[in-house]
Design brief:
Blueprint (H helix, E strand, L loop, with lengths): L1 H12 L5 E14 L10 E17 L2 E20 L6 E20 L6 E24 L7 E6 L5 E13 L3 E15 L2 E4 L6 E8 L1
Antiparallel strand pairs: 1-2, 1-10, 2-3, 3-4, 4-5, 5-6, 5-7, 7-8, 8-9, 8-10
């Protein structure tokens, strides 16, 4: 009938939604060269938090995604014997971090509901505020100490991730990302991340 044909035409002409926004949860491991140049040991720990995401689809399973995340990082900054003495020195750090991830996803729609994908992302992390605990063993000259304060304006890290994941009905996605390359700055000193031990796991909820 004419009514049925018109209804079918309306369904065919209906535009598929291309913009989604929501929240993202993420957690990962951190491993990088020590902020203290005289230590051979790397800094290692965890980082995680929550954020806002905005996603645009350029085909049914391919998208461009931006976000802003609020993260908390906990690492052991330096551990071991100092180069110029027999002092055992340890620095634990907790930091508040703002992160902007920029991500491209390329997926294969297996059905209306499932689409595995690969991703490439650049994550810029701005370190904002930190708490530091210094512990010194075998020392008759120095005492344990704590301090806190704002990071310098140039204390920013750039990390490049490659990821794999699966998207479910565009409203939920999980993925695992491993580091391709990463570099950071602290007080004008640059350092590299360890690609073998730095990774990221995320869950996205979009509507």
């Amino acid at each position: 009938s004419l009514v049925r044909d018109e209804s079918r035409l309306m369904v065919l002409n209906k535009k598929e939604k291309t913009f989604y926004s929501g929240i993202s949860l993420n957690i990962g491991d951190v491993d990088r060269q020590s902020y203290f140049e005289d230590f051979d040991e790397n800094e290692d720990g965890i980082i995680g938090g929550i954020g806002y995401l905005a996603r645009w689809y350029f085909y049914s399973a391919g998208s461009f995604q931006l976000g802003i995340n609020a993260l908390v990082e906990s690492v052991t900054m330096a551990e071991g014997e100092y180069s110029y003495s027999y002092l055992d020195f340890n620095v634990d750090q907790i930091s508040l971090v703002a992160e902007i991830p920029i991500e491209l996803r390329f997926g294969i729609p297996l059905s209306e509901y499932f689409a595995p994908f690969v991703s490439f992302s650049l994550n810029a992390r701005k370190y904002i505020y930190g708490w530091f605990k210094y512990e010194m063993e075998n020392s008759w000259l120095y005492n344990d100490a704590t301090e806190d304060g704002f990071y310098e304006s140039g204390d920013i890290d750039f990390l490049y991730f490659l990821g794999i994941g699966i998207e479910i009905t565009k409203h939920f996605a999980i993925q695992y990302q491993w580091l391709i390359s990463g570099i950071g700055w602290r007080s004008g000193y640059d350092f590299n991340y360890d690609e073998d031990f730095t990774n990221r796991f995320s869950m996205d909820f979009a509507f």
